[in-house]
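In response to reviewer comment 3 from the previous cycle, which asked for concrete evidence that the modeling workflow produces usable outputs, we include below a single protein chain processed end to end. The sequence was submitted unchanged, and the resulting structure tokens are shown without manual editing.
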Amino acid sequence: MTVRSLQEAFQACGEDLRKDESFARYYIAREDGASLELAERMAMDKRPVKALFAGQKGAGKTTELLRVVRDCVGTLYPVYIPMDHIHEKSGIPELLSAIGLGMLKKLQADKINLSDAVMRSLLAWLKDALKVPGDEKGGVSGVTDIFAKLSEKLKKKEARAEIAAALESRRDELASKLTELANDVKARTNREVLLVIDGTERLGKTQALMFLLESSLLDLGFKTICTVPFQLLHSAEFRDLRKAFDLIAVQPLVDISTQVRGLPKGATDLRDMVDKRVGGELVDSSALDQLIQNSGGNPGELLRFLGSCCIKASMQGKSRIEARTVEQVLEDFRLEMKRFLSAEEWHRLTQIQRDRNTPSDETLSSLLESGAVLEFPGKKDMYQVHPALLPVLKERMAGA
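The workflow returned the following structure tokens.
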């Protein structure tokens, strides 16, 4: 779709593809995307496959998971649960409550009438384990309301401790009850449940590892995909746990470093994405080249820069984005990073520029979270300074 104004283009850059209409309008299939492998494995493997999915912030993990959900609808019963409100301090009780609530909301929305026996069993467990009062509604609607109230109580300091302790001590039983739920869904829809948990990488490496170890995720008797922080996969703590998962998929950044017939290999996908979001006529050709090269192949970063360019061009009374506008937006980004990054982080950036095989530590994790460093999957950890920061880094190295 062609967007005809910078205002419309700015809105399109920020569109959430979790909306069906936005996905249909703006989705671009990436040649190197992870969705095909994930969807094929889930469809072909008859076991309750457990998969982990990682990738740098902005690489397109959510978009690929949404594609998996759509590709599996005919053969599986996918339940997509976005963990929008979790953070590094979120505990296992909050996560388990969110998973249970997400599954029940999906069943309620699809009007899946589960057996009375399964609903009574789940309700009885809630009463016994969590001491929750009965609900007059009964059925899926009643149990959904109970889980919603649990999630709200977990957010309140005065009520959290008791409920959290109960969930912690009996989380394996909750996994069993959710498996009963999934088996009943299969009996009624003739499709196996596929649980897609998106956003758990926000927990950070330590909390995400604890979630995988202690949440009973591996005990769920149905197929599951769960996102994790990219740096967790190469950590020593994860080494023994790796074999417990059937598939570990990685969403790479778009390859713009490899030249094919004189053009960056992955640039076509990014150009198509820009064209769908804003329309090619709004972006000068040289400006688009500049945006793609300075995005580092990160689709999320490209859209962020593009949105800022829409605002900057509009402020200047322009009707399209030119190379000068892009450079001004990049300079704003550099100034922001100059204020934001510490001297220790700038020193580490210099080290990474000289040697991409840099050791992992808290400073590197901070740089990855800020977006100042790009991460690439492979046999070894490979890192690269964000290309838009290279002029600043060059100045600092020259002045050292």
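The first strand starts at residue 50 and ends at 54. We consider this sufficient to address the reviewer's concern, and the full set will be provided in the supplementary archive.
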